[in-house]
Structures are given as structure tokens and as C-alpha cells.
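Priority: medium. Attachment 1 of 2:
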């Protein structure tokens, strides 16, 4: 009898404390209050702010800016490989870089957690400020956001996560002049129907919703909107441009997107829009076959000449030794031939 009593008493005590702990945990929500606003960097106003004037980017001094720059690889990758430090950005600056594109992969954002990922971005923005370089923060997914089907698991996200990402980023970097651009979604594509379907009107509405959300926190930073076909095709702008001010558009005109001659195809796909809107080719790059040289008719010369003659900015992909097309041979920062080409292009007067 005593043993049975002790057994029931033990079960009662365990159940009571378990219930009490669960109840305390359940009721903790009412103590939390509002999340405090992020602390603003003392360097936030160090660089002149960038804004849109007609089809150009201008700074607060009134200067028209044509950006030349590059994409680094994901900060989470760089950090895991032991190279996330100011020296990495000094190597970027040595190339003549004006604009650094920072791709944030959804999987890295989740696994590191937003709070810890923001610490990486804060460091990058501070280093870029010190070095006089502006920043694009890029939500680096590839696929169909409407149907939430993506090209690879590293790009998997949801509409809710995408909205929350931009809510977090806009609140955190509002008022920081170094962060000049928010690239809302890297490469929209249906992969020839394998990732479902999406109409431009659906994409337009999602982008306008994100822009409206961003503007509730940050009225200054310029949203960048990509077209379909892996961020190549801006032809819908002829009929249905995004309904928002102080924005710009994105194209990724890689050489394999169309066959030569490229120029008339570039005119048709995105070049026409440069007379009305500011455009950044946020990814350009190329591979080289054995013994291939970069002559005057090569894609590299053709695309940079084409973009700059029409006032379009660009960032090369990618300042990394493993992701391709790669600008680095290894983590000793020796440049590939493509890296050397873009260094020359960035330093050209």
C-alpha cells in the first residue's frame, strides 16, 4: 500500500511541475513586449545617399553614378571557410569595385538564424563603408515564388519567409546610406514549366507588396526588381511596369542566354527599358575554353560596352574560387582571366 502511495505521489509531483513549467512557458508571451529598434551604425551617413532620378542613379551631391562592381559569395559560406574579415573586402576594393552585391541564400538565413546573420551583414556594411563601397543585399533564390517551387533546396523559401526577410532587413538598415539597394528576388523562373507557372501580373503584385512593406520602414533604399527567364527578360515593362517610385530593374544577360549577335537581342529583352528606368545587370560573367582569349569581340567587352553606353550599371558574378563563373583561382586571391578582365573594366576611366 505504501509503495502504491509513493508511486502515485511521485507521478503527481512530476505532473505538477511539468504542468507548471509548461504553463509558465505558455504565458511568457505577455511579458515580451515590442522588439526594440536596432541600434543605428555611427557610420550610417558616411557615404552620400543614392536615389533615382528619371533613368539614372544620383547621389545627394547631384552626381550621376554608373556603378561597376561584383558579387561576393554568401557571407555564411565565406565565414564557414574562414575568410569573413575586412581583408576579404580590401581585396574586393583593390579591383576598383564601387558596388558589392551580397547574396543571402534562404537556407543560410534560416540555419544561421536571422539575428546571427545580421551580424555578418553589419560587419560587411561597416567594412564597405570604410572602403567607400556601396552594397546590394540580395535575397538569393531561384524559382517560382508564387507556387513556392525552386531550382535547388538551397533556394527553398516561402512567400511568408520572403516578406519577413525584407521586413527584417528594411527595419535593420533603414537610414544606412551604404546599403543603397535591396534586390528583392534573385532569379524568377519557371524552368520551362518544370517549376509551375506564374503570370507577370502575379509577380508584379508580389513585388509591389514587398516594396510597400519595405517603405513602411525604409523610404530611401532602392528596391531592385528582376524580370523572368532567370532575371533576363524585362519585356513586360512595355505594358505593365511596377507601380512604385524610386525603384530600378535587374537583368542577368549571361552569354548563354541568347546566341550571337547579342546586341539586338539585348535591345529587345532589356536594353529598351534603359531609356525610361535605371537598370543594373547584377550578374554578368563568362567561362573560358582552353586557350580562349578575351579579344575585342568577346562577350566581356561587348556586354560592358553595351551596358555603359546606355547608362546601365553592372556587377560581375562571382568573387569566389569555387562558385562559377569564378573570379578567383583560390583563397590566395589570385585572379582568373575573367577576374583580371573585370578588374581592368572596373578601373577603366
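Attachment 2 of 2:
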Amino acid at each position: 500500500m505504501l509503495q502504491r502511495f509513493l508511486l502515485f505521489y511521485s507521478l503527481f509531483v512530476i505532473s505538477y511541475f511539468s504542468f507548471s513549467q509548461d504553463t509558465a512557458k505558455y504565458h511568457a508571451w505577455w511579458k515580451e513586449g515590442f522588439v526594440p529598434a536596432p541600434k543605428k551604425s555611427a557610420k550610417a551617413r558616411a557615404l552620400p545617399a543614392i536615389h533615382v532620378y528619371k533613368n539614372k542613379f544620383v547621389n545627394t551631391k547631384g552626381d550621376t553614378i554608373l556603378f561597376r562592381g561584383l558579387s561576393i559569395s554568401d557571407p555564411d559560406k565565406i565565414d564557414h571557410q574562414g575568410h569573413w574579415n575586412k581583408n576579404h573586402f580590401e581585396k574586393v576594393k583593390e579591383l576598383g569595385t564601387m558596388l558589392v552585391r551580397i547574396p543571402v541564400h534562404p537556407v543560410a538565413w534560416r540555419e544561421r538564424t536571422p539575428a546571427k546573420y545580421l551580424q555578418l551583414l553589419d560587419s560587411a556594411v561597416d567594412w564597405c563603408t570604410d572602403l567607400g563601397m556601396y552594397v546590394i543585399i540580395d535575397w538569393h533564390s531561384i524559382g517560382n515564388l508564387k507556387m513556392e517551387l525552386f531550382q535547388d533546396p538551397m533556394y527553398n523559401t516561402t512567400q511568408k519567409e520572403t516578406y519577413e526577410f525584407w521586413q527584417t532587413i528594411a527595419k535593420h538598415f533603414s537610414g544606412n546610406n551604404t546599403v543603397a539597394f535591396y534586390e528583392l528576388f534573385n532569379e524568377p523562373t519557371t524552368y520551362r514549366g518544370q517549376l509551375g507557372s506564374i503570370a507577370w501580373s502575379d509577380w508584379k503584385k508580389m513585388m509591389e507588396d514587398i516594396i510597400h512593406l519595405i517603405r513602411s520602414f525604409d523610404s530611401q533604399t532602392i528596391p531592385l526588381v528582376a524580370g523572368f527567364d532567370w532575371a533576363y527578360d524585362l519585356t513586360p515593362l512595355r505594358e505593365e511596369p511596377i507601380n512604385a517610385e524610386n525603384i530600378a530593374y535587374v537583368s542577368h544577360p549571361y552569354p548563354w542566354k541568347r546566341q550571337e549577335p547579342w546586341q539586338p537581342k539585348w535591345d529587345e529583352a532589356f536594353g529598351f527599358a534603359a531609356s525610361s528606368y535605371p537598370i543594373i545587370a547584377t550578374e554578368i560573367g563568362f567561362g573560358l575554353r582552353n586557350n580562349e582569349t578575351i579579344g575585342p569581340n568577346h562577350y566581356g567587352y561587348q556586354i560592358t560596352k553595351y551596358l555603359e553606353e546606355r547608362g546601365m550599371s553592372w556587377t560581375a558574378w562571382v568573387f569566389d574560387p569555387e562558385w562559377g563563373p569564378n573570379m578567383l583561382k583560390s583563397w590566395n586571391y589570385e585572379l582568373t582571366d575573367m577576374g583580371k578582365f573585370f578588374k581592368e573594366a572596373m578601373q577603366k576611366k
